[in-house]
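retry 2 of 3: previous attempt timed out while embedding ribulose-5-phosphate. Reduced batch size to 1 and resubmitted. Inputs unchanged:
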Amino acid sequence: MEQAALKERAAFAAVDRLVTSGMKLGLGTGSTAIHAVRRVGALLAQGRLRDICAVATSQGTAMECENLGIPLYTLNAKAIGGRLDLTIDGADEVDGENRCVKGGGGALLLEKITAYASAAWAVVVDESKCRSRLGPGFPVPVEVVEEARLTVKARLEALGAEVSLREAVRKAGPVITEHGNLILDARFPEPPSPEFLEGELNNIPGVVENGFFTRLRPLVFIARTDGTVEERP
Ligand code: 5RP
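retry 2 succeeded.
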């Protein structure tokens, strides 16, 4: 099966298995999570789901919700009260302990706030995202305020990272996040533990958030090329 079909399959499996009427639902960002958004929209339109209160993790996801008529709230809205029943999101890499690297789409800040505010978190991936170790492969995004670009870069390098400023496509200059910050992509050829790095990176002055997700272990839906979807607790 093609990767695009696998992404859809993983996302549909998570929605069909976990989403029920009345839920406060976090909706992730990216080319896999978008299929979960579309599935929720279709089930609402068919009347098979009701009374969903959704929180989007990016402007792109919010726009898709608006197009599909999915009722959208902020995390601070009275109907949500800062707590969600479930968030479904994609990931850039997942290891055997369901720790993740996220933020390939630059939405790591809201993705982490939303995931960690959820009673349950599901991650939907195709099998190409599975890794034995996090760090040496997909570079970990680190969102930083502009003034701290060089000081954070130096601290990341002191931790053993190879660092590059994320450049925009079809815009001159760097990516500016939805929160007005820059992203440093940090590859760790010899990474300390992801738990250590998740905390340590956020201790650097000027770091807003980083793309290690280790504190809440998700239920991972892995779509495999043989057509099966593994549900890994
Ligand atoms: C966006 C993310 C995405 O979930 C991650 O990049 C995976 O994206 P895709 O499903 O398009 O491969 O963290 O910030």
